[in-house]
Write a structure and sequence with these properties.
Layout: H1 6-10, H2 20-28, E1 32-35, H3 47-54, H4 70-81, E2 92-95, H5 97-109, E3 115-120, H6 125-133, E4 136-141, H7 153-159, E5 164-170, H8 182-195, E6 198-202, E7 228-233, E8 246-250, H9 253-265, H10 271-280, H11 285-308, E9 322-326, H12 332-341, E10 348-351, E11 353-354, E12 368-372, H13 377-393
Parallel strand pairs: 1-10, 3-4, 3-5, 5-6, 6-7
Antiparallel strand pairs: 2-8, 7-8, 9-12, 11-12
């Protein structure tokens, strides 16, 4: 039998999706499963998106340009101006979701063996995209004990080698919900300048910042405009994850030329998704505010409930709609599987993402899970009741010190 690739063997399984078969089996047994494992909001998609889809006036569903519909890129430029992100239409490349934007950024910037420094825990698919590009993610750990704040700049300096090509941040952060401060962003800027690095900045959750402080984009940092590769997506802000439309934004001309070669190789981003995305940018401010306020309420409710459960701890996330939770268990991976395979409370169970999958440092995240507060508060309340009973029944429970 022919051997499969080494690249495929070392590709990590998604901590968000790898337990899906167990959840499906639980549902088949008649168990109600509260899905807190994935950032799939239950907030309705804007009506503007559905109207655009229903009223398509085309005779042919043709290829779009490889860098995306010009009309969509113009709309995106206007959208970014609302956040004082000053980019030209030609700086914007439409991609098949934010995931493709990260992949193409890596493929266009990195050679095999090149390194990127990433604070961890980090979005698990960054590792998969780096493996696809033959590059290496070098992680710098942050801790739940200090709310996942950025490690000292000296720690970054220790990791920089001749193969280091960039720093990757997710701001607001997935999976922690951490929001970088201006001081932290300026420290990153100084590192990028000093060592002539790319700054890959995943900013898909910019609409969900809860501190009241101004949102800070990598494009707000003076002096590194041509070193920034901004990653974006319409999935989260308009609750339309399935249309698979994202964007890569850069002022680095040679990088854009490289990215375009990969765009041309895959022909074009999805036409129907772009039509929906373009219409969604006209979503009324009232919709955006209602969505924001809903997440503010869910966040407060979930964190309050979690921290009332004996042995549980979650810092207050300041952005996005995720939090990392420490649980009183011997092994969170085992606990998450046990909840789906063996446990139910009044015909219900809970689906969480083991946090170990968001770390590369061995042993880190072993007693942590990521939760997405993408369900209504009534559902979250039931999920927390199930979690409390699950922790009481779990054979590997560890009593808090």
């Amino acid at each position: 039998m022919p051997e499969v690739s080494h690249r495929g063997r070392i590709m990590p399984a998604s901590p968000i999706r790898r337990l899906v078969p167990l959840a499906n089996a639980a549902i088949e047994r008649g168990t109600k499963v509260y899905r807190l494992n994935i950032g799939q909001p239950d907030v309705p998609t804007p009506q503007e998106a559905f109207d655009a889809l229903k009223n398509i006036d085309r005779k042919v569903l043709e290829y779009s340009p490889s860098d995306g519909l010009l009309s969509l890129r113009r709309k995106l430029q206007q959208y970014y101006r609302r956040f004082n992100i000053k980019v030209d239409v030609d700086d914007i490349i439409v991609t098949t979701g934010g995931s493709e934007a990260v992949l193409f950024a890596f493929m266009a910037c990195l050679d095999p063996g090149d390194e990127i420094i990433v604070p961890e825990p980090a979005y698990a698919n960054y590792m998969a995209f780096a493996i696809s590009a033959g590059a290496k993610i070098v992680t710098i750990p942050s801790s739940i004990d200090d709310g996942f704040e950025l490690p000292p700049v000296e720690k970054f300096e220790e990791l920089i080698t001749p193969r280091t090509k960039g720093i990757l941040i997710c701001n607001p952060n997935n999976p922690t919900g951490y929001l970088y401060t201006m001081k932290e962003m300026l420290q990153i800027r100084d590192l990028v300048l000093k060592h002539d690095l790319f700054l890959f900045s995943d900013e898909v959750y910019r609409e969900f910042c809860y501190t009241g402080a101004p949102y800070i984009s990598a494009f707000h940092l003076p002096g590194i405009e041509d070193k920034v590769v901004l990653i974006d997506s319409v999935s989260k802000r308009y609750n339309e994850c399935g249309i698979r439309v994202g964007a890569l934004i850069t002022k680095h001309k040679e990088l854009k030329q490289n990215v375009m070669k990969f765009c041309q190789a895959r022909l074009s981003p999805p036409l129907l998704g772009q039509i929906v995305a373009e219409a969604s940018i006209d979503t009324p401010a009232e919709y955006m505010l209602e969505t924001y306020n809903e997440y503010v309420e869910r966040r407060k409710f979930l964190i309050d409930q979690l921290n009332k459960i004996p042995g549980c701890y979650s810092p207050i996330p300041m952005g996005a709609f995720y939090t990392v939770v420490r649980l009183p268990v011997d092994d969170a991976d085992r606990f998450c599987r046990w909840c789906l395979e063996e446990f139910s409370y009044e015909g219900q169970t809970i689906f969480m993402a083991p946090a170990s999958g968001f770390y590369t440092t061995p042993g880190m995240g072993r007693d942590e899970v990521r939760m997405a507060y993408v369900l209504k508060k009534e559902e979250l309340a039931k999920a927390m009741e199930v979690l409390r009973h699950a922790l009481e029944a779990y054979p590997g429970r560890v009593e808090p010190k």
